[in-house]
Predict the structure.
Amino acid sequence: MSEPSWSDKLFGGFRKTSDRLSENLSVVSTAKLDDATLDDVEDALIMSDLGPSAAARIRAKLAEKRFGLTITERELKEAVAEEIAAILRPVAVPLDIVAFPRPQVILVIGVNGSGKTTTIAKLGHWLQEDDYEVMLAAGDTFRAAAIGQLKIWAERIGAPIITGPEGGDPSAIVFDGVKKATEIGTDALIVDTAGRLQNKRELMDELAKIRKVLGRLNPEAPHDVILVLDATNGQNALSQIEIFKEVAGVTGLIMTKLDGTARGGVLVAAAEQYGLPIHAIGVGETLDDLRPFDPDLVARVIAGVA
Ligand SMILES: Nc1nc2c(ncn2[C@@H]2O[C@H](COP(=O)(O)OP(=O)(O)OP(=O)(O)O)[C@@H](O)[C@H]2O)c(=O)[nH]1
């Protein structure tokens, strides 16, 4: 049997999300696009985690283009897909390795369990496939388990890793990482961090210290601060963006666990509300399950017309 194509896999992963939106939109069936129908569409979008702001925007666009026309369910879904794509396109920004001098320093933050460690490994693997040399740094020194897990992933992808003792100073590890990466000409240094939100002050202080230490080696670093979000958290993922944006200067997002959740609509809410680049999406637990963020395909999959 041949391997499922990427869009089949994406569609499979997003099935619960698209089923939910389809089900919510099907209340509309063939109908005249009047205020009452538009209300139903807006409610369906909100119930599917797209958020009130994206829902209002999509409603307004549908009204602008088709008010008073009779529309089939399929046409409605096509039209919704088009408006979702319009929201997603501006934030679909691939992660480019452009730092000069090398390495490009990529800090990865996110609450425990968001998929941060796995995403670091997947991202490393992805960059290696594009012929970049990658190094990892175990800056989450808060838990020994985090260091151990990252070591295992580093071995699996065959990337060097900089570690320190549990409870050690993350900025010292990052410093060592940049020095070593510079010495051996590594393209990207991907840094795991302890993304605890319980204490904003501590997190801010820790990141400020990392920035200060990095600044001594390269004022441009860190080049990227990527927030990893777990889509299954739904609206809660949005409040994490809000907080991390404020305390950590997030430059981009990766949303994980889009496979098997009905809450993938939150991707659209995040794009609409925050406008931060979405570099990639995670749709599974293996190394190949980090994927470029294709806004048109994702929009069609969410709307159930892929
Ligand atoms: N289904 C699915 N599972 C994922 C995805 N990304 C990560 N996971 C799983 O989510 C769990 C948590 O992932 P980790 O990478 O350990 O998350 P973390 O944020 O580093 O968590 P801690 O190690 O607890 O801080 C693991 O079981 C991963 O296999 C994804 O895209 N899809």
